[in-house]
């Protein structure tokens, strides 16, 4: 019997990226029967059952408490739990992972040259009703996000046409007048002669690890969640930094200056030789040149695999989980 249920996307690019990320984090997921089964396990971590679901199902199962943790798009979490208070009480956003970026946007036909903002759209909706005797039709899969965004913008004269296929093609097909859709580059929208309103980005989404606050949490499940969060945090920290090593005549001064100038951290202090610094990737070369100017005969830059340390990610997860049942 499993202690913790971890939901992972069942197909597509998001699944590929998720499995790659978990593997890098020391959480390699083993799927039975060559990928045909919808159940799996995490190698070396007993008690975790992996379930493969669609990204939208993952958001719903977390909200219902049927899974303890999962990886899905932030857009789907907000669509499933569109009320901020309900969202905060039912799920905890553990960590955004930096892949699977996409925006939920409002896009109108490019020929609507006088419509550039949501306020313009509200005016256009009123005129459309007067001229054509009907409301504007908005094609979307994001019903809740659309309603909340349109209400906040004071746009009420519209009706939603739920999209079952390629949303961006609805205006050309004549089934809708505009769309609320998800896009990465905007190229597909542009290819369908649609433009994004200047204030039409409803939500910037990315792949996110989410924990359910309404699932049944045992002490064992909580401990497993902590292990998963620790490994995710270690991988994310490793991806954010490069490690610099150098022998210096005055390592303490160099470490202090590197911290101030480049955001460098000396995880083992300034005393050990060689001096070891963790530096944001974009500043690593600058910091290496600085260490050379401080007297280092050589500076070695190393890609680290994981960085385990106390982290806010795990602390926040534990604070968000309900009391355990045993």
Can you give a write-up of this model?
Helices cover 38% and strands 27% of the residues. The protein is α/β, with parallel strands linked by helices and 326 residues long. The strands form 3 sheets. Strands 2-3-4-1-5-12-6 form a 7-stranded mixed β-sheet, sandwiched between helices. A 5-stranded mixed β-sheet has the order 9-8-10-7-11. A hairpin with a 5-residue loop joins strand 3 (39-42) and strand 4. Helix 9 (219-240) runs antiparallel to helix 12 and helix 10 runs antiparallel to helix 11. The two termini are 16 Å apart.
Distance between the termini: 16 Å
Mean pLDDT: 94
Q: Spell out the CATH superfamily of the largest domain.
A: Periplasmic binding protein-like II
Tell me what portion of residues adopts beta-strand conformation: 25-35%
The CATH class assignment of the largest domain is Alpha Beta
Taking the sheet with the most strands, its summary is: 7 strands, mixed
Shape: globular
Tally of individual domains? 3
Name a few traits of the molecule:
globular, 326 residues, D-Maltodextrin-Binding Protein, domain 2, seven-stranded mixed β-sheet, 15 strands, alpha/beta, five-stranded mixed β-sheet, Alpha-Beta Plaits, 3 domains, 12 helices
Summarize the structure.
With 326 residues, this protein is of the alpha/beta class. The chain is built from twelve helices and 15 strands.
């Amino acid at each position: 019997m499993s202690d913790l249920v971890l939901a992972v996307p069942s197909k597509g690019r998001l699944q590929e990226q998720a499995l790659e990320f978990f593997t890098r984090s020391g959480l390699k997921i083993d799927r039975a029967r060559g990928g045909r089964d919808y159940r799996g396990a995490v190698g070396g971590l007993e008690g975790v059952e992996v379930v493969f679901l669609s990204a939208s199902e993952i958001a719903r199962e977390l909200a219902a408490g049927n899974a303890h943790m999962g990886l899905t798009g932030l857009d789907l979490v907000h669509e499933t739990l569109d009320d901020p208070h309900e969202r905060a009480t039912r799920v905890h956003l553990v960590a955004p992972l930096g892949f699977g970026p996409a925006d939920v946007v409002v896009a109108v036909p490019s020929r609507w040259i006088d419509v550039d903002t949501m306020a313009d759209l509200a005016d256009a909706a009123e005129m459309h009703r007067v001229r054509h005797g009907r409301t504007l039709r908005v094609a979307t899969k994001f019903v809740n996000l659309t309603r909340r965004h349109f209400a906040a913008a004071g746009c009420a004269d519209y009706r939603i046409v739920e999209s079952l296929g390629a949303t961006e093609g609805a205006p050309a097909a004549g089934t809708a007048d505009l769309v609320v859709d998800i896009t990465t580059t905007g190229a597909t929208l542009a290819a369908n002669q649609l433009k994004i309103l200047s204030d039409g980005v409803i939500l910037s989404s990315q792949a996110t690890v989410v924990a359910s606050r309404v699932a049944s949490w045992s002490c064992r499940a909580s401990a497993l969640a902590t292990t998963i969060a620790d490994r995710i945090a270690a991988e994310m920290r490793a991806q954010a930094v490069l490690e610099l090593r150098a022998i210096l005549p005055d390592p303490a001064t160099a470490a202090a200056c590197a911290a101030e100038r480049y955001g460098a951290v000396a995880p083992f202090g300034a005393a050990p030789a060689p001096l070891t610094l963790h530096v944001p990737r974009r500043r690593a070369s600058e910091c290496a040149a600085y260490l050379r100017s401080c007297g280092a005969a050589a500076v070695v830059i190393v890609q680290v695999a994981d960085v385990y340390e106390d982290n806010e990610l795990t602390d926040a997860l534990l604070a968000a989980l309900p009391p355990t049942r045993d």
